[in-house]
């Protein structure tokens, strides 16, 4: 029903003007209600390809099916008609929903938003973080009633309007619910309370995008054989590594090391420094790789050639069969100073690396393009409580989880101070990195120490405790320095501290 073009959908197309002739002749429907399917573009290209043609300039990459249900409801409503949908809440801040939010701002008035956040209101549905949206097809300023549930525990919905501790209830002019050039929709009362703090962060600051390169990791197009891409035969099994191989596969292949790099997962990343590695390797090929120079790797990849030839870019002649889908330039990963972080995380975890750090697209990279800003100074800011709150309220989220895509990261404001004033931050960060490295080493020793060697275990345990205490002290010092840097009042500091609990 979303696609009413016979050219695209053939005899499956739905003609609203024919099926609801009288209604459409009179301007459209009085009301549209629904619970649209929760389907994203990833893995569903066949579903979205006709939508891309049907909606043309209203279409955006990585869209969700609910966007088009919203748009279609606007098209079908008569003036002052009402839509009520229950959907996922990702459209509030998602990059892919930018066009949808612009339509909301230009064409409708939102009367009610009930954001369930972490509350699961369906027993079995996937992808929950639900919101109920009511709007009218008119352009007048109304008081938008926002109900924002702030707990992840079951609550009494019959008394939802009287529950002040776990539910925020407030009104805003409908024209004021949109923030910034991307028209983010903010449903939290705390965001309004924090606006003064956010303005202080922006004052005398530069955007991250102006001083740093920000990149995602590589996309091999075929990390391993999975259930979704499995082609049944006698030699290949689900779980076999193609471009990403484990240690056993590495030893069996014995590949030429020039193309094989240690591969890190987003779960390996910790704040300040990351020492974990899950013993994975990536075969790093690109369009310029002469695969004949690497016979062992060629033999390995040849076993999975039918998977690799499924790439659209191979079929169009843009990439050879043995190339990763999106390899990225090696400079992103190699042994230059950089900050790495996972694209999805419960907290702000930004890590320093001056070594090779190859990771796939769920890891992002920050590299300096302005020598006036030391990466360790940026690291102090990014790992702080203040910047967690900034990312939580100004960035993107899936429920309570931060989604650290390129867009919110490049818009982070960084206080513009001299190299001399950056030194106290840099010194504390360097101490934390040193202490965390020692903590990792001592923890490894503790884990491998014979349980009967009590004296050694006690010594190691005491050292580990001391490292943790010193690290925590340095982190608190950094937070304190940042509060002074932005001249926050005691009341504002209290709000930040409470917001991170």
What would your notes on this structure say?
- By secondary structure, the chain is an alpha+beta fold.
- It is built from 19 helices and 22 strands.
- The strands form 6 sheets. Strands 1-2-4-3-5-6 form a 6-stranded mixed sheet. Strands 10-19-15-17-13 form a 5-stranded mixed sheet. A 4-stranded mixed sheet has the order 11-14-12-18.
- The protein is globular.
- The model has no long low-confidence stretch (mean pLDDT 90).
Cα-atom Rg, whole angstroms?
26 Å
Number of continuous helical runs: 19
Task: Estimate the helix proportion, in percent.
Answer: 25-40%
Strand content: 15-25%
Brief sketch in words of this structure:
The chain contains 19 helices and 22 strands.
Outline the secondary-structure elements.
Blueprint: H1 6-9, H2 16-19, H3 21-25, E1 29-34, H4 45-55, H5 65-76, E2 77-88, H6 98-107, E3 109-115, E4 130-136, E5 143-149, E6 167-173, E7 178-179, E8 184-185, H7 189-193, H8 195-202, E9 205-207, H9 208-211, E10 212-216, E11 244-246, H10 247-253, E12 260-264, E13 272-273, E14 280-283, H11 295-302, H12 305-308, H13 312-315, E15 338-342, E16 344-345, E17 351-353, E18 358-359, E19 363-368, H14 375-382, H15 385-394, E20 396-398, E21 401-403, H16 406-410, E22 413-415, H17 419-448, H18 454-485, H19 490-499
